[in-house]
Write the structure tokens for this entry.
Amino acid sequence: MTQTRTRLERGRGALGPALALVHTGCAPTRSVLTAELGVTRATAGAVAAELEALGLIRVDARPGGAPGGQGRPSHRLALAPDGPVVLAAQVHVDGFRAALVGLGGRIVATAPACLTVSADPAQVIDAVVEAGVGLLRETGRRCVGAGIAVPSAVAEPEGTALKPLRIAWPAGAPVRELFTRSLAAAGIDHPGFAGNDINLAALAEHRHGAGRGARHLLCVATGHRGVGGALVLDGRLHTGSSGLALEVGHLTVNPDGSGCHCGSRGCLDIEADPLAFLTAAGRRPGPDGSPLHQARELLRDHAADPSVRRAAHQLIDWLGLGLAGLVNILNPDRIVLDGLHRDLLAADPERLRAVVAERSLWGRSGAVPILPSTLDHSSLVGAAELAWQPVLDDPLTALAAERVG
């Protein structure tokens, strides 16, 4: 085997890891890429050139050196602003949203949110794909994959929604199969991927948001209704043996609380979600907007109201109890909160952190950072991560039929 051929094969094997580094912002220059990959400068240069030829990144061949810097400045690497996209969607109790998402978790375009969800999953998924196709037509972008986030535990690898929460889909709805079929009918020749919405939010935060750099990241969030959680271990979602791990919403935090649809009482799912906050504050959900939006507006616009403040403290205490139990079991090195929980953290960060520290063994021995999520539409971005994964694994194979240049 010649040296040239060996270099080419080594370079091809580095394409996926190299793209992942640029995708997550970990390789802003070719010198950093060289160091992270552990290859020669020549190989790193060839890898960067190949990724540029695929239309995925841009290489700045004339970078400006920092004032007073020594040596030749390295070429800068950036994601191609006009590169391919994936179709991403999120379904929730109050509707769905479709978007086009580029590398780096950048949302390129979104369709107006739909405010109703049919009991027929095929009908909803067809509407999602129709909205996505409209965006592709408007923008003229290449689509290289598709992912959808749903409010349900999703069995792996089948992609079935085992127990959709608060939407009237049947248990075991074949979401991935329906999605792939609808994409094919619309002329998108890529398989559809499906995942739980909170799992995907955690994946997005780990790659592009407040969870970057964490080894063991715990994400807990309120959706439009209910509470979910997810764990990322060494960069990979921990989904259990079949995709059902970490149903944190069914931790009991108030034994004397209301009955839960799971059969228990006082679960985090019903004690610390948007409807619980509105109820505790003496408000009823209005006909316009989701409970999540209404709860956020109430907390933002009426924080000084004693009833709102008491409700916030009550939910913070229940949330803190739940997080303390999770800290004892999982020992994460970071916690990220999303949905209404992000707003509760902002309203009284010291109270929440004090409850977690007081009620958890690891919290007493060393504070666990509790941070707000930094991504808007994190589940959408996470759905896009599912679709981008085949490209990140092997860009040359995934884009062979669409290669530019």
Remarks:
- The first helix runs from residue 3 to 23.
- The chain has 15 helices and 14 strands.
- The two ends are 28 Å apart (CA to CA).
